[in-house]
Specification:
Elements lengths: L21 E7 L4 H8 L4 E6 L5 H12 L3 E7 L8 H12 L3 E5 L13 E4 L2 E5 L15 E7 L1 H15 L4 E2 L1
Parallel strand pairs: 2-3, 3-4
Antiparallel strand pairs: 1-7, 2-5, 4-8, 5-6, 6-7
Helix pairs in contact: 2-3
């Protein structure tokens, strides 16, 4: 990055170019079933990255996946603006009790000031959305947003690698 400031441990990722791929574009609040169907369809692995997570429907899908033997890993912002809500803390506790691996990114040693992505990898499919994993976002309650579900092995592998890099990077903690 030409000698400019870089976050601790930052290794720039190359721009990924993929395609052709099968893609489903959806808008919110119009089509909240698309991301939920994707999460519910996981058989082997489910990686969910986000800023915040408090959607009961999403948490239910993650808990159900974990209970049926799917490897569920969640990576979220550890210090969102306003702090973790009671609803989110309860959701994360529930996920942990169900066997999901939950990690939060934050603190003085964190690589980035905020962990702000919103995507999920469910086996060979990925969902990328503009909205948080909250009732007003992906549940379709009241936020306008959009997303895309993609079935492309190389793109899914890139997102899974990004998840792994961020989940093991500085400031990511259980």
């Amino acid at each position: 990055m030409n000698g400019s400031w870089q976050p601790r441990g930052f290794e720039p990722r190359p721009v990924g170019r993929h395609g052709p791929a099968n893609a489903t574009l959806f808008v919110l609040p119009d089509a909240p079933a698309v991301p939920l169907e994707t999460l519910r369809g996981a058989d082997r692995r489910l990686l969910l990255a986000g800023y915040t997570l408090s959607s009961p429907r999403v948490v239910d899908a993650l808990v159900a996946a974990s209970r049926r033997g799917v490897t569920v890993r969640v990576l979220l912002e550890g210090g969102p603006v306003g702090g973790l809500s009671r609803r989110e803390a309860a959701a994360l506790d529930r996920l942990t009790r169900a066997g999901a691996a939950v990690r939060l990114v934050g603190g003085p040693r964190a690589r980035f000031s905020y962990h702000h992505p919103r995507y999920a990898v469910a086996d060979g499919r990925a969902v990328v959305a503009t909205e948080n994993w909250v009732p007003g976002g992906v549940d379709g309650k009241d936020n306008r947003g959009w997303g895309v579900r993609v079935s492309d092995p190389a793109l899914v592998a890139d997102l899974a690698a990004l998840f792994d890099a961020d989940a093991t990077g500085p400031g990511a903690r259980p």
